[in-house]
Fold this protein.
Amino acid sequence: MTADRDFAPDPNWTQRRDAMREKLRAAHEEASPLVMGILNVTPDSFSDGGHFDAPERALAHAARMVQEGADILDLGGESTRPGAAFVEAEEEIARTAPVIAALSAASACPISIDTYKASVAHEAVRAGAVMINDIWGLQHDPDMARVAAETGALVVIMHNREQIEAEIDILDDLRRFFDRVIAQAERAGISRAHLALDPGIGFGKTDAQNLACIAHLDRLREYDMPVLLGLSRKSFLGRALGRDVEHRLGGTLGANLFGATRGAAILRVHDVAPHVDALKIVRLLRAA
């Protein structure tokens, strides 16, 4: 589908989107993941809440992540941690759109918007974002699939659950969910080439189910779509290691490098530089 120009005021937007799509495709085919830097412009994120909620601090942190080697930045205006306060769409737009516009003007690094609200995604793409990262996989806002199709943005479909059910086979649940939502996306007019999948580590799953999703991440490659792995500093790592949120880098690196061996195409992380270095060493070892 051709992008609606109302959603793409920047004449370079389509070029940026296409370049990101091709880079992501190459990462998928070569099993050599990109690094997505997390930029939370919220006061209450579980990991870095309040650190970057002022525009100037957000822009400085974004510039630092780009300098460290981030391939894409994922910007969110509402915390998704359990118990986090709901943020009205107008407030979320006010937090994110100006930062996206400033980043798009200052850097060629592509930008993703982390939101489940269609109106926020709409304004983020207008401001320059080329990817919509929806933690409810087009299921929460009935308008999201339409906005994603009309903008022509890339879309990350994340598996999520309202409730944890320890007795279910989470891998079967992933399969049923993605079968259904991919078909829904295609009916809405979203190009299959614009989709990526995320198993949703830490969302509606037990620790054992989180580990199973990472251990068997390669099953999602059966869809022949890029897979995003987002586990940075999450609670299951803390419980496994007995570490608080500020001391989970080692666990995050270990799990992400394992996920890379299972075919992850994007690693969504708070700590960009250590992941860029670790992946560089992996590539050197593969080529040795």
Notes: Strands lie at 34-40, 72-76, 111-114, 131-134, 154-158, 195-198, 228-230, 266-269. Residues 32 and 265 are 6 Å apart (CA to CA).
